[in-house]
């Protein structure tokens, strides 16, 4: 196993990714679809009110994308630190 | 061909398929029994997870719930998908690296304590039993609706099938059957949805269709908002629940999802850490296909229903209305005797009672689709109910044979002995689940909220802290789990059962006393916060974990050098 200092850096980068991705997770669901749903509903998005669309469609699309972005980033990170199996 | 003939053919074919898979994928070792040998490819594991996750309730009832709740239904859509982001980012890869068989395994090892392991076993059993009690009933109900047999008979048939492939195949059998079940249930859900979307909007993609215009040039959602207002309901696109409650329920469902042992254990079945991440992504994608279609079906069905029945003469209603009246899912009571159906929000004047399940069950008929599509929905509902029941039964069986027997009572038990014990405990678990199916506790709906609340209040904080906070120790974790479980149970007993105020009749009046205006469904969010707070407080006044545990935490954070799932 590689040395401790490098693993510490690996872990820090991982945490940074988590912070970015979970912030987006929070924004699309709790912020757009719940806390700000009323103001966003005054915006039209095709036949949808935007806040409603985030609550019943948009947030779920973003969730799927978030996981696949995480997979990509982590695969790259694993390679960079040479920890993939 | 007759509908009943079609249904028997489709159900018979799918059951033959499940049994065939079970024989082909028998488990020969305890590792195969608990985690399918740890060799499931990520895409297939994603499908199996999705089938495991989507129960009869998701398949049959969710569209109805959203249909009647409108925006309020969003809590389930977001709650039951958003949890997978937490699972993928915070739990799955690390638990796979840890590489044992069960959630209590992780809690017990990470917190170096038998007490912690026992608390975890109790929590896993509580969560899984509350959850499974509704599933066998679901199997019975689907059988009785589509095959015209008694509900009890349906439960027996369901038990026999699950028994066969769970006992024989363990996790391996369950996983590959669930892959087949996913394909059947998603096909059965999408076919009617696509047909109806084309009929109503000309758009074959339901997710886009419900934001399009109907044939009259009015956006479907605007039309539905208008209809709802006219009849005195709240606008479809805005809800009736308070903001705090919507927020809390979404948190509780997301965190609960990430803490459910039958979901977590799926990530022990893939070969590598990177596969655990990937399969969480696939699982959510496969789930999202159904979950993003649900709100479209909800809108189509509600608009269709209101337009077909509201203010129409009872005698001129289409045949499907009378068919479903026979099942009791639709009830017309001509209060003012004018022969016209008045469907309005005002309870005193409303003349039509609609069961929410009809939104999926009757949809193909309402849209005039052929009999084989209607039969397909029946086979899909059975696939959904059976796959979830089997996944839960496995967690119960492994909690008993692995966590309790092997790890605590009989550590010297042989590999062969453990496998026999695992099979026996799954037989016992099927019997208990079957008993609940035959004698359903009146509180099935209530206990699902409890299952999510308990999972959120116990496992999620203990696992996350175990991975991300190296200094977290057994005292903190155990105190946190006990506090979370205790508070959650108290709240459900008080506000869902009226336990301290004279029984179920008191529940309605107690709503005014909800803490912070949060419903029992959302209270898992508060109980989880308490667990975190208690854990983090206690850890400050107690000794740090021993060095080998700190090393273990460092080890699970790095993907390579992973230990195979042996742990014997």
Automatic annotation (TrEMBL), chain A:
The chain crosses the membrane at residues 15-38, 50-71. Residues 8-84 form the Sodium symporter small subunit domain. Keywords: Membrane, Transmembrane, Transmembrane helix. InterPro entries: Na_symporter_ssu. NCBIfam families: Na_symport_sm. This is DUF4212 domain-containing protein. It comes from Caldithrix abyssi.
């Amino acid at each position: 196993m590689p040395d401790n200092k490098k693993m510490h850096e690996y872990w820090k980068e991982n945490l940074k990714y988590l912070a970015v991705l979970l912030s987006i997770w929070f924004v699309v669901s709790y912020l757009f679809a719940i806390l700000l749903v009323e103001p966003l509903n005054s915006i039209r998005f095709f036949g949808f009110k935007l806040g409603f669309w985030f609550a019943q469609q948009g947030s779920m699309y973003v969730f799927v994308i978030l996981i696949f972005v995480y997979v990509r980033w982590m695969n790259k990170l694993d390679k960079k630190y040479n920890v993939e199996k | 061909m007759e509908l009943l003939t079609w249904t028997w053919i489709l159900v018979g074919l799918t059951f033959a398929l499940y049994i065939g898979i079970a024989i082909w994928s028998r488990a020969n070792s305890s590792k195969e029994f608990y985690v399918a040998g740890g060799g499931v490819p990520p895409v297939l594991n994603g499908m199996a997870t999705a089938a495991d996750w989507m129960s009869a309730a998701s398949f049959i009832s969710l569209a109805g719930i959203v249909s009647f709740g409108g925006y309020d239904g969003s809590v389930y859509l977001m709650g039951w998908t958003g949890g997978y982001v937490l699972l993928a980012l915070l739990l799955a890869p690390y638990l796979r690296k840890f590489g044992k068989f069960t959630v209590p395994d992780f809690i017990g090892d990470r917190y170096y304590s038998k007490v912690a392991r026992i608390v975890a076993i109790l929590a896993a059993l509580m969560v899984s039993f509350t959850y499974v009690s509704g599933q066998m009933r679901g199997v019975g109900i689907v059988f009785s609706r589509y095959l015209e047999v008694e509900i009890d008979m349906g439960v027996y048939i369901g038990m026999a099938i699950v028994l066969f492939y769970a006992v024989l195949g363990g996790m391996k059998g369950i996983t590959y059957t669930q892959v087949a079940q996913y394909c059947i249930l998603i096909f059965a859900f999408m076919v009617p949805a696509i047909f109806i979307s084309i009929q109503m909007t000309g758009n074959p993609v339901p997710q886009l269709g419900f934001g399009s215009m109907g044939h009259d040039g009015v956006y479907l959602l605007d039309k539905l908002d208008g209809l709802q207002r006219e009849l005195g309901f709240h606008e479809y696109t805005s809800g009736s629940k308070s903001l705090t409650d919507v927020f809390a329920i979404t948190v509780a469902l997301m965190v609960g999802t990430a803490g459910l042992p039958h979901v977590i254990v799926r990530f022990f079945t893939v070969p590598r850490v990177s596969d655990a991440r990937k399969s969480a992504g696939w699982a959510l994608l496969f789930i999202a296909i159904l979950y993003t279609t649900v709100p479209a079906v909800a809108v189509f069905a509600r608009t269709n229903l209101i337009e077909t029945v509201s203010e129409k003469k009872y005698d001129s209603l289409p045949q499907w209305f009378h068919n479903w009246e026979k099942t009791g899912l639709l009830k017309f009571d001509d209060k003012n005797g004018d022969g016209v159906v008045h469907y309005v929000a005002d309870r005193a004047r409303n003349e039509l009672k609609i069961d929410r399940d009809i939104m999926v069950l009757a949809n193909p008929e309402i849209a005039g689709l052929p009999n084989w599509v209607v039969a397909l929905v029946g086979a899909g509902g059975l696939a959904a109910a059976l796959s979830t029941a089997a996944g839960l039964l496995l967690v119960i069986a492994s909690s008993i044979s692995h966590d309790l027997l092997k790890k605590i009572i009989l550590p010297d038990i042989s590999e062969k002995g453990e496998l026999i014990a695992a099979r026996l405990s799954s037989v016992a678990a099927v019997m208990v689940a079957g008993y609940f199916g035959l004698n359903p506790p009146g509180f099935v709906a209530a206990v699902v909220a409890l299952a999510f609340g308990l999972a959120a209040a116990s496992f999620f904080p203990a696992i996350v802290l175990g991975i991300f906070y190296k200094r977290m120790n057994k005292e903190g974790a155990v105190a946190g789990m006990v506090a979370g479980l205790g508070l959650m149970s108290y709240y459900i007993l008080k506000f869902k059962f009226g336990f301290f105020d004279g029984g179920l009749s008191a529940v309605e009046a107690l709503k005014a006393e909800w803490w912070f205006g949060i419903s029992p469904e959302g209270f898992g969010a508060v109980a989880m916060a308490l667990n975190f707070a208690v854990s983090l407080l206690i850890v400050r006044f107690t000794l740090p974990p021993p060095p080998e545990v700190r090393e273990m935490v460092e080890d699970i954070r790095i993907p390579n050098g992973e230990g195979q799932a042996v742990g014997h």
